[in-house]
């Protein structure tokens, strides 16, 4: 029988390497770019599944409570107002901002709901040693949707809104505020608790380990981008992962072209996002528009410096830095630069990590507009700038997904050969 030697390609630099020692508890990093190749948790499989399942069920209950009860209650001049998260989505939808409504719904309700119900569907039978139908395909969807769940960003948005609203009215945090905070902690715990590699092996036990010595010379090997299974690529036809059915590519197809187009589109949309008002405030018959920058300046000059700094970083620094980094990566790859590949890979990982935080401003504007509707006294509306800003966030997220960091390293190999 062929002895199985764990071989893998790095997801960030593409290097094919052998794992000589796999610790029971810990991670193995790529020898070239420091990306994590394999990660194992100490807890035994049965205990790990049971543990994660308990967290998933609790998180689902918290998600339901968080959406049934209002997040914040506001008392302005005797007018009491309260809003659930769904009220915010409904507000945007009825105010001709369907795109933004869809984005807020996906990132705060849809994605966590799909993520948690998907995990429940898989983990509950697995806990009783059964494999539910279509488990690998469903787990693939769960892994894709996870990057769109932005509860931690929403939480920051809620806190910023509470501080901003307390200047206008009496703000009473409602039950959903606490359950949202708990839900955010539980989802983070689920993500760190779940041993994804162990779960993949559990839900697809029939997958054969690749017998490397039987492969033809020159066979292209790459790991599935979704489930990390090592697969062979065919030159003649499209290849699909035998475990999760995702399309397999040696490099993401048309990565540079797609990423360039998305970055240019995001740069174009960045102009109206900053020039048009993101929030319209009507007070005593007078309407004033607030752009992102004027909102930050207003907070800074009115004594809310910490809040101004948070919004400045999330809404101005993050999108700008992300666009600069992506442009730098595109230009250096296009000109086949060999300049600091490891650092450029770190920059790429940074764009994946920071991008979501720009959503804070959209959550703040939506919450404030939904809550402050005192006719005759004060009305807050979401401005068109917020829609443009939402488009920038989505475009930059897609651009980062379209970019293939392995292209940075391909240029290194060309000259070294
Ligand atoms: Zn690597
Ligand atoms: Zn796969």
Order of helices and strands: EEEEHEEHHHHEHHEEEEHEEHHHHEEHH
Distinct bound molecules = zinc ion
Return the average pLDDT rounded to an integer: 89
Please tell me how large the radius of gyration is: 24 Å
- Helix count equals 14
Stretches where pLDDT is under 50 for at least 5 consecutive residues are: none
Strand order of the largest sheet: 13-12-15-14
Q: Per DSSP, what share of the residues sits in E-state strands of 2 or more residues?
A: 5-15%
Q: Let me know the number of strands.
A: 15
Structural class: alpha+beta
Give the termini distance in whole angstroms. 35 Å
Instruction: Report the major sheet.
Output: 4 strands, antiparallel
Shape: globular
Helix content: 55-70%
Structural description of this entry:
The protein has 417 residues and is an alpha+beta fold. Helices cover 57% and strands 14% of the residues. The chain is built from 14 helices and 15 strands. The chain has helices spanning 45-68, 85-94, 98-127, 135-146, 151-166, 175-193, 196-203, 255-275, 292-301, 305-334, 341-354, 360-371, 384-402, 406-416; strands at 7-9, 16-18, 26-29, 36-40, 72-76, 79-83, 170-173, 220-223, 230-233, 239-240, 247-248, 279-283, 286-290, 373-374, 378-382. The mean pLDDT is 89. Bound molecules: zinc ion (2 copies).
How do the strands and helices of this protein lay out in sequence?
Elements: E1 7-9, E2 16-18, E3 26-29, E4 36-40, H1 45-68, E5 72-76, E6 79-83, H2 85-94, H3 98-127, H4 135-146, H5 151-166, E7 170-173, H6 175-193, H7 196-203, E8 220-223, E9 230-233, E10 239-240, E11 247-248, H8 255-275, E12 279-283, E13 286-290, H9 292-301, H10 305-334, H11 341-354, H12 360-371, E14 373-374, E15 378-382, H13 384-402, H14 406-416
Antiparallel strand pairs: 1-2, 3-4, 5-6, 5-7, 8-9, 10-11, 12-13, 12-15, 14-15
Bound molecules: zinc ion (2 copies).
